[in-house]
Design brief:
Strand 2 (111-114), helix 4 and strand 3 form a beta-alpha-beta unit. Helix 4 packs across helix 5 (171-180). Helices cover 54% and strands 13% of the residues. Residues 1-18 and 51-109 have low confidence and may be disordered. It is flat, with a radius of gyration of 61 Å. The protein has helices at 2-16, 19-59, 64-88, 122-134, 171-180, 197-200, 233-248, 279-296, 309-313, 341-378, 384-439, 445-508, 519-542, 583-604, 624-637; strands at 105-106, 111-114, 139-145, 151-153, 164-169, 184-190, 207-208, 212-213, 253-257, 302-308, 331-334, 547-552, 564-569, 574-577, 612-616, 643-647, 660-665, 671-676. The protein is of the alpha/beta class. The two termini are 122 Å apart.
């Protein structure tokens, strides 16, 4: 059944994927894709409108219809107001210009903000600057570091290394071009609202539980961000370094935003200072940070601190007080809409209250300084340095007195111990004297006188003996000194003798546990090795590679040798003495040694050349093959103007030698010489 079922499935599969069905399926897929694309084309605008409306109403919590209606109503009201103002301009007097808050707050002016991401080249910068000029703006606000922690230029500050955007702009070039176009550049920097740089330098952040960074939400995955800590000296230094950096790029106007604590203050936050938990402590720290920046850049940078209008009129946890009460020299107030009369009045009232509070604090400070001056005048030492010097002197005197007192106490204790010991000794002697007096029998005066006389005589004898010994002591001392000098000289001589003896033993070959090789034998061995290198070259040729001479060392460390010769038989791989060679082989070895000696003399003695060599006898002991090899070697020696003479009675040599001196012995005595050339 299973087999039939598989056949049915296979047959159905082939029927479904026939050629006709494949064509139909392809046409259906094409038609479906075209239909989907057409539906998407017509529905896309409506879908985008719905998605945008949903995003702003649900996610951003904004009512687009209400905003559109309000913008339309505002436009209509503005047009009507403009028309009414134009009709009444001739009849009504010009209103007086409303003055800004004196010295503290700026609520309007010719400021305009540029999008730094669009200032990518010179043309874009100049176009933006000219548009601002046409709009009547005098200051261009360029955000170089935003509240997200992004730095838009190539900063050289170490803590900003991870915050630089992928495509940084040339901030110095932007400032230069804006000035050329008549616009004053102002750099805007986010101060403590920086969730990025704290990960580069964790000492700048708000912490909790030790080194962990505090986030303003549960976790970073849920949108939690880290905050810089205004109490951290490294954070204040970091912001100051950024201000210094943009000043060097040509920005003499710097606007700081985000000079605040987190908007949420919880018990888990660790600011590293107890004042971070109170509003007064936070306000005092922000005031100190702003004062530090103003002092650092006094005369080189016009420093602005920017807050929204809501933070300037009411105290919050983020500032600890109102923005106008932080003691900054220049305050920039931002508002999402134009300030109405009530908002402006509230702002002016907050500024006035801040001025009154500052005046009261200054008066209190002046009073405290007066009290300090009065109390300082009453002090015996008006300056801290003088008091410290006097204190140091008293401390030194006290230390000296304490040391002296300790020394005196130690000496007193030692004296008391000495007195106690002396008293104990006196008591013991007294007791001994009493006991001796009781034990001694009563003696007469004559006996005591006789004993005294005997003791006196003994004393005189001892004194005489002392004088004799003293007289002998001086010569003995001289003798002892001479003995010590002689001993030192003997030791020196023994050391030198040991060195010379070792050298002599080395040269004489008598060192213990060493080979018995004398110096001359060692030198001869060296030369013999060099002669053997040359001789073996000849001997290997004469013996067809069979024999090679070698120097044999001493058999043991007790025999003086090292100049004996042995022979290596390469045919059977044995070593034996040269005494085992036959007569012809001995002749070959002797001839090779003679030739090796000649080669060594010529190579080692510069300028000496052996041009003549005579060989006497020995050829008669050679067989025909050996004689041929010997003649071949000797023939090789004649090359290069060298003369080789052979003295022999062997007849086989006569045919091989071209030039001969034949000596004939006469019967009557004497001999004759015949030259054959």
């Amino acid at each position: 059944m299973a087999k039939n079922k598989r056949q049915k499935v296979k047959h159905y599969h082939r029927s479904f994927y026939s050629r006709e069905m494949r064509v139909k399926r392809g046409i259906g897929i094409v038609v479906l894709v075209v239909a989907v694309l057409a539906a998407a084309w017509f529905a896309a605008p409506h879908v985008l409108d719905w998605a945008t409306h949903t995003w702003y109403t649900v996610v951003k919590d904004r009512d687009l219809e209400a905003e559109s209606a309000s913008r339309a109503e505002a436009a209509a009201s503005s047009a009507a107001a403009s028309s009414a103002a134009a009709s009444q301009a001739a009849s009504e007097p010009e209103p007086e210009e409303e003055k800004p808050l004196d010295g503290k707050a700026i609520t309007g002016g010719s400021w305009a903000e540029l999008d730094v991401t669009t200032l990518t080249d010179e043309a874009a910068i100049r176009t933006a600057a000219r548009q601002l000029k046409q709009q009547g703006a005098d200051y261009a606000l360029v955000t170089l570091k935003d509240a997200a922690g992004t730095v838009y230029y190539a900063s050289g500050v170490a803590a900003a290394a991870q915050s630089i955007t992928e495509n940084p702009v040339d901030a110095a070039n932007i400032a230069a071009i804006l000035r050329e176009e008549g616009i004053i550049p102002a750099a805007q920097l986010a101060a403590f609202t920086d969730p990025v740089s704290v990960y580069t330098d964790r000492s700048m952040g708000v912490h909790y539980d030790g080194n962990s960074l505090w986030l303003d939400n549960v976790s970073a995955a849920k949108g939690g961000k880290a905050w810089m800590n205004p109490f951290a000296a490294s954070a204040v230094q970091f912001v100051g370094d950024l201000i210094e950096e943009v000043r060097s790029m040509g920005y003499e106007q710097v606007v700081l935003t985000g000079v605040q604590f987190p908007n949420i203050i919880t018990r888990k936050q660790d600011f590293g200072a107890s004042g971070g938990k109170s509003r007064e402590g936070r306000a005092a720290q922000l005031t100190a940070d702003i004062a530090a920046w103003q002092t650092r850049f006094a005369g080189s940078v016009t420093l602005w601190v920017s807050y929204p209008d809501a933070l300037c009129t009411a105290a919050t946890d983020a500032l600890g007080t109102t923005g106008v009460a932080l003691g900054m020299e220049n305050l920039l107030v931002t508002s999402s809409a134009a300030l109405d009369a009530d908002s402006r009045a509230a702002l002016e009232q907050a500024a006035a209250e801040a001025d009154r509070s500052a005046a009261a604090q200054n008066a209190s400070a002046d009073a405290l300084e007066g009290q300090i001056a009065e109390r300082r005048a009453a002090l015996p030492y008006p300056r801290r340095a003088d008091a410290q010097a006097a204190l140091d002197k008293l401390e030194a005197d006290r230390s000296t007195l304490r040391t002296g007192m300790d020394t005196a106490q130690r000496k007193l204790k030692q004296a008391e111990q000495t007195v106690a010991a002396a008293e104990a000794a006196v008591e013991a002697l007294t007791a001994q004297q009493t006991a001796a007096q009781k034990e001694l029998p009563a003696r007469s005066a004559e006996e005591l006188t006789a004993q005294q006389t005997a003791l006196t005589a003994a004393r005189e004898s001892l004194r005489s003996r002392e004088k004799q010994l003293s007289a002998q002591l001086l010569p003995n001392r001289k003798t002892a000194a001479q003995y010590r000098a002689a001993a030192e000289a003997r030791q020196t001589l023994e050391s030198r003798w040991q060195w010379v003896s070792a050298l002599a033993a080395t040269a004489g070959g008598t060192l213990t546990s060493k080979q018995k090789i004398r110096l001359e034998a060692y030198i001869q061995m060296n030369y013999l090795d060099r002669i053997l290198r040359y001789a073996n070259t000849r001997l290997m040729q004469m013996t067809a590679g069979q024999y090679e001479l070698e120097r044999i060392g001493a058999e043991n460390q007790r025999s003086q040798s090292g100049l004996d010769l042995g022979v290596i038989d390469h045919y059977n791989g044995t070593r034996r003495s040269v005494k085992t060679l036959s007569g012809g082989e001995s002749f070959k070895a002797s001839l090779a040694l003679a030739l090796g000696l000649s080669d060594e003399v010529q190579s080692s003695a510069g300028g000496i050349r052996l041009d003549t060599l005579f060989l006497d006898e020995g050829f008669g002991s050679l067989d025909e093959e050996s004689l041929e090899l010997a003649i071949r070697v000797l023939s090789g020696l004649t090359e290069g103007d060298r003369l080789v003479g052979i003295i022999s009675h062997v007849g086989a040599l006569k045919d091989r030698i071209d030039r001969q001196v034949v000596v004939h012995k006469a019967r009557t005595g004497g001999s004759t010489v015949e030259l054959r050339v």
